[in-house]
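Record type: monomer structure entry
Structure origin: computed from sequence
Chain ID: A
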Amino acid sequence: MNKLFDHKLWAILMSPFSLLYKWVMQFRNYLYDIEHKAIFDFDNLIISVGNLSVGGTGKTPMVEYLIRFFLKKHPDLAVTTLSRGYGRKSKGFMLADAETNAKSIGDEPFQMYQKFAPAIDVSVCEDRVLAVPSILMEKPGNNVVLLDDAFQHRSIKPNFSIVLSDYARPFYNDYVLPSGLLREGRKGINRADVLIFTKCPQGISQQEMRSMQKKASAYFKKEAIYFSGIQYDLVSSKLDRTIKRKIVIVTGIANPSVMLEYLESDYEVVKHFNFPDHHQFTEKEIDEVNAFATANHADVICTEKDWVRIISDKQLENVLGDKLFYLPMMVQFLEGEEALEKQLNGLINNQDKTTN
């Protein structure tokens, strides 16, 4: 109750600043809408994945879902992902290759490179308007660019825009920063073509989904409102063996609550080392994790995003050795997958007609 009260009090106190921020974002969007600020249109198919809020709504798993869709249904198309590369130590445009790691291109792009290259290409750049021509120069046969976290990046006109909203904190119950976590007002979501509620529980009822659709439709004026959950698949970093009953959890993500709930149902969690999103682990921190796991006869589980940061530093990886397991997460649609695939196939067919 006190936590809820504190949240409401914070929202009230910050409401003047939220109103100012909301007006600034509305004016910015207005300048794009009247074409006072330039919007660039490219010949290749541009698909954007983003959200209204800051924090983790599952954008990377959704981009990975789209990658799997193209590889399975349209393997003839050349696909490139484009991210900012948050937390990387490099600057400018980079196309991932065998020499790159999480430090050079960022953890999420490196995660996608590890899983899908060379079937797709992975690129990073702060300025995505400059990045798309750079992709075409490096990969002249490119057909599709998947923009990660780009809903507010209005300088590029996407052919298709997917916006995600966390089931536990739906956008229609949230407020603009700093009162809440929204980057812009709720009505901004209407720029999207599809709204997907993510991280939904497996047992969500039809009644609850219809209720969420109704509340969302006050702002999102399209029928394409879908629901997805998370599917986990535990992987050993070093050895193919069964994990111990006791575990130490290490997370450096925005919202680890769903992962924790999943692991606590099957394992004895002796400690959770909770770090900020995109945290760069130090040797001292990993030594502490290893010492605690050893003392408690436990294994260590981290997210896939944390794992790629750890293996980018051999010294950190060697400390944990065969104790280390990671937990990839995949999008699992509960409703709307066929409709989404139909929309994506329609995009590709229209693109083929335009280019032929």
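Annotation 1: The two ends are 61 Å apart (CA to CA).
Annotation 2: The longest strand covers residues 225-232.
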